Amino acid sequence: MGHSTKERLMALLLISPAVIAVGIFVYGFIGWTLFISMTNWNSMIPDFTFVGLKNYVRLFQTLRFQADLRNTLVFTVLFLLACLSIGLTLAVLLDRRIRGEGFFRNTYLFPMAISFVVTGVVWQWLFNPNTGINLIFDALGLDVLKSRWYTDPTILFAVHVGKIKFGVPIALIPVVVAATWQMSGFTMAMYLAGLRGIPDELREAARVDGATEAQIFRYIILPLLRPVTLSATIVLGHISLKIFDLVFTMTGSGPAFATDVPGIFMFETTFRGNHFAQGASIAIIMLIMIAMVITPYLYYSIRGEAEL
Length: 308
Fold this sequence. Notes:
Number of strands: 2
Structural class: mainly alpha
Helix content: 55-70%
Low-confidence stretches: none
Mean pLDDT: 88
CATH class: Mainly Alpha
Distance between the termini: 34 Å
Order of helices and strands: HHHHHHEEHHHHHHH
Oligomer: single chain
Strand order of the largest sheet: 1-2
C-alpha cells in the first residue's frame, strides 16, 4: 500500500464520523420530516397513512399561513434594506479613521452579543403603547408620533390577496427595528472589512483623473463591495426567513396574525396542537424558502472558485 493511499484512507477515517453524523441527524431527519409531511399524523397517535400533498394544499389555503408568508416577505425586505443601508453608512464613517474608532466599532457590534430573546424582551417594553417610546413622545409634546405599535392590526398600503390584506403591518415595524438594531453591526463589520481591503491607490488614481468622492464611491467602491453585499444578504436573509425567538418573545402572533411567522406557526401547530404532519409541512416550506436564498449564493461561490 503506497504512502498516498494510506493518507487517503486516514483522511476518510477522520472525516467519516462527521459525514455519518451529518447524514443521519441532518439529511436523515430532513427526509423523515418530508415523509411525515405527506402522512395523516395529526394527533398524539402516529398515523403514517400516505396523503401526498394534501397537507401542503390545506396549508396554503389557510388564512394564517397566507399572513405568515406576507409577514415573512415584508420583514425580509425591510430588514435587509435597513441593515445594509445602516451597516454601509456606519462602515463608510468608520473607514475615515475617526478618533475613537475602536470604541464606536465595539459599540455597534455589541448588540450581536445579545440573544434575540433578550432583544425581544427589551424592545417589547420600548414599544409598549403605555411605556417606553410613547412616554418620550408624550413628554416632548409629540403626540402625533405616538402609536399602538405591535398592538395595532392596521395594514398599510393594503391590497386584498387571497384571504388576507397584503401590505405592511404596522405591528411588524417594531420587530424590524429590533432586528435591525441587533444585526446592523454585523453588516457594518463586513462592509468595513471590505472597505479596508480596497487599495488606496485606486482612490488616488481616480482623484487624479478628476473624479469626485461621490463618483469614486458609486463607480469604484460599490462595485468592489458587491461580494460583501451578497454575503451579507445571504446571512441576513437566512436569519429573517427562519426567525422565531425575537418575534415569539416580543409580539407573538400579534393582532390578527400581523406579526406571525412560519416558525411560530410550526411550533404551535406541532407542539401545542399535536398536528405533526401539518407542522412538518410548514418546516419543509421554510426549508425550501431558505434553500431558494442560499442556492444562488453557493452557485456564485462555486463558479467563482472554478474561474480561479
